[in-house]
């Protein structure tokens, strides 16, 4: 009987700690911020006057003093990030899907596992290709 009671108390304690961690993880902490993409999803037109629709996930956009943008962008079939001038270093990392990156006068295919660094003064755009959405992580510094 004591083993059953101890097990029940331990189980309830784990559930309580998990619930508290889940709630507090969504709030600003001095040491960390935990955000869940399901809470950040925003359907919007593709950026930089692109075509089609996309889903944007702007992680840590409300973190005080953070000078780093970390975004996930899902380009739906037929959509594209518009061609634009880059003012600072920016990294694109392709999580899934396929696309065509236009970089200045060059165009090249991109796929899952590819990382592209765009440097200040260059121009670029990204077109989704294929039947699956193109999922990209985008990272850059903000001013």
Description:
The chain is an alpha+beta fold and 143 residues long. The relative contact order is 0.18. It has helices at 2-25, 37-40, and strands spanning 42-45, 53-59, 68-75, 80-85, 90-96, 98-103, 106-111, 115-118, 123-129, 134-141. The N and C termini lie far apart (62 Å). The longest helix is centred in the N-terminal third of the chain and has 24 residues, at 2-25. A hairpin with an 8-residue loop joins strand 2 and strand 3 (68-75). The mean pLDDT is 87. The chain has 2 domains: 1-34; 37-141, Jelly Rolls, CATH 2.60.120.10. It has a 6-stranded antiparallel β-sheet, with no helix packed on it. A 4-stranded antiparallel β-sheet has the order 4-9-6-7, with no helix packed on it.
What can be said about this structure in brief?
This protein has 143 residues and is of the alpha+beta class. It contains two helices and ten strands, in the order ααββββββββββ. β1 and β2 form a beta hairpin.
Secondary structure: elements and pairs:
Elements: H1 2-25, H2 37-40, E1 42-45, E2 53-59, E3 68-75, E4 80-85, E5 90-96, E6 98-103, E7 106-111, E8 115-118, E9 123-129, E10 134-141
Antiparallel strand pairs: 1-2, 2-3, 3-10, 4-9, 5-8, 5-10, 6-7, 6-9
